[in-house]
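Predict structure. Chain length: 325.
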Amino acid sequence: MTEPLLAHATERGRMYSRSVTDDPLVPSITTVISQAQTSSLDGWFGYMAASALAQDPRLASSLGNPSEMRAVIKDASKAAERYRDDAARRGTRVHYYCEQVALRDLGRSHRLDEARTDLAQHGEDAFAARFDEWWDLYQVKPIAPEITVWNSELGYAGTLDLVATIAGRLCVVDFKTRATDRDGMVKPLDEKVVMQLVAGMKAQESLVDPHAGTWEPWKYGEDPVLLGVAIGQTEVRAHRANPDVLKEHWFKFCALRRAWEAGSNAAGAGRPLLTVPPPPRAAVGVAATNRLESSTGSGSAGRPPEEGNRDYAPQGGVPEHSMEG
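Prediction complete.
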């Protein structure tokens, strides 16, 4: 996805404003969905670090040099972050190219040649070639590329990659740049794309002018086909969100929206843990004295505590007479 004009990076995640002059108000669709992250990436981070260390050409010479070894290890520890950031930048370039293709077909101003050149300079021209093949094969008729939508009732916003017609059907499309597996096939989509698509379908407004902050009722939410499109260097594969499961994925998205709000409120409520110091020594002495006086008080002299002071009975204890036959 390209960078929408009304999207902002905040401490609460990616959020949207109503105009370029307004403060961010609601979380993005992807920020809400990120609340569902449950699987640990520790193994992947470890593998990326170990792989980077093994492939570092400085490894052999650094074995007898502690300072150089520390530098090699430090660089290897950031391998996963570099991979993630590189993938994000590649995804932005591919999405930008897809947007320019749609703008060209709509007869609007575009920068298609520059976008294609940028991909080629990064060795990513195959993504554009495969996308062009898919675009022609499916006979895509674009309506609105990179359209920002808003839902005030639940409180979220997002930017959809494309609204188009394919084979006469209205489609809401989300593009995902994917790597290629060992068999030369594009890797499958994450199933969370269904939540992303159904949240877009459930929008109530779409952006008209970000500078004036004008919006209009969402016109494309009535039973569209929801498509997740995986774009790879060897192929492009389209997947339709199963209509029979959309309700459940919408309910899940709503629950995650509430989880985001609860987490945000908790984070801003104040310090969650407070240090408890030990009590003053004088207070400890007074408490001990009070306990001693209680054990030898009125009516208990000369008798064991369990007979003269019922306070010494253990909590939840069984009265002695209840054990008699």
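Summary: Residues 7-266 form a domain with the Lambda Exonuclease; Chain A fold (CATH 3.90.320).
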